[in-house]
Amino acid sequence: MLPVVICEENRSLRERWLDVLGKLAQERYPLLRFEALSGGERELRRALETEDGIMLVILAVEGAIETGIGLFSSVMERNRDNYVLLCLHNAERLDAVLSRCMRPAGILLAPFREEAMRMSLDRALRDYTALYEQEGQNGYMTLTSGKTLRRADAAGYLLYVSHFGNSLLRAQGPWSHPRRA
């Protein structure tokens, strides 16, 4: 199940996102289950505390840009594989977003056209579906070393990871000794 959090204060816009998501799921992703939560910053922070897998977050940035960037950072710190669609209510905010080298799954500018909403969601869902089909239920984890990201199969085997010199050590079970990965 993919939790989808719509962090948008405008109720009618939240409902539009839910409609587009529902139509897209029905037409193109019938096997993908969604749990849609919608609301403001408080609901997003609650979801970040309770969800431990990959999430799709639709994040409106309308007030102070620092609040939106802070929320974006919180979502990505929780899980770097999360998908964040940034919805900028003011085009002047785009420069502030891009200057911080943020990596959103998509950026939409107001006024939000249904086709742009659909394309952004489709791109994120297509990527998530490919990742899910590739990895299945095996439980992968993302390892970060500097700017390098690696995905490792954690399927109950990855117990200990340590940086030793310039190499990574892995223990694959309680009976084995750490070995260089």
Walk me through this protein's architecture:
The chain has 181 residues and is α/β, with parallel strands linked by helices. The chain is 39% helix and 29% strand. It contains five helices and ten strands; from the N terminus they run E-H-E-H-E-H-E-H-E-H-E-E-E-E-E. Strands 2-1-3-4-5 form a five-stranded parallel β-sheet, with helices on both faces. Helix 3 (65-78) links the parallel strand 3 and strand 4 (83-88). The chain is globular, with a radius of gyration of 18 Å. The model is unreliable at 169-181 (pLDDT under 50).
How would you briefly describe this protein structure?
With 181 residues, the chain is α/β, with parallel strands linked by helices.
Mean pLDDT: 75
Q: Major sheet: order of its strands?
A: 2-1-3-4-5
Helix content: 25-40%
Alpha-carbon distance between the two ends:
31 Å
Number of helical regions? 5
Q: What kind of sheet is the major sheet?
A: 5 strands, parallel
Strand percentage lies at 25-35%
Give the overall shape: globular
Rounded radius of gyration (Å): 18 Å
How many strands? 10
Structural class: alpha/beta
Low-confidence stretches: 169-181
The string of secondary-structure elements, in order, is EHEHEHEHEHEEEEE
Task: Give the helices and strands, then pairings.
Blueprint: E1 2-7, H1 11-28, E2 34-39, H2 41-50, E3 56-61, H3 65-78, E4 83-88, H4 93-99, E5 106-109, H5 114-135, E6 140-145, E7 148-153, E8 160-164, E9 167-171, E10 179-180
Parallel strand pairs: 1-2, 1-3, 3-4, 4-5
Antiparallel strand pairs: 6-7, 8-9, 9-10
Helix pairs in contact: 1-5, 2-3
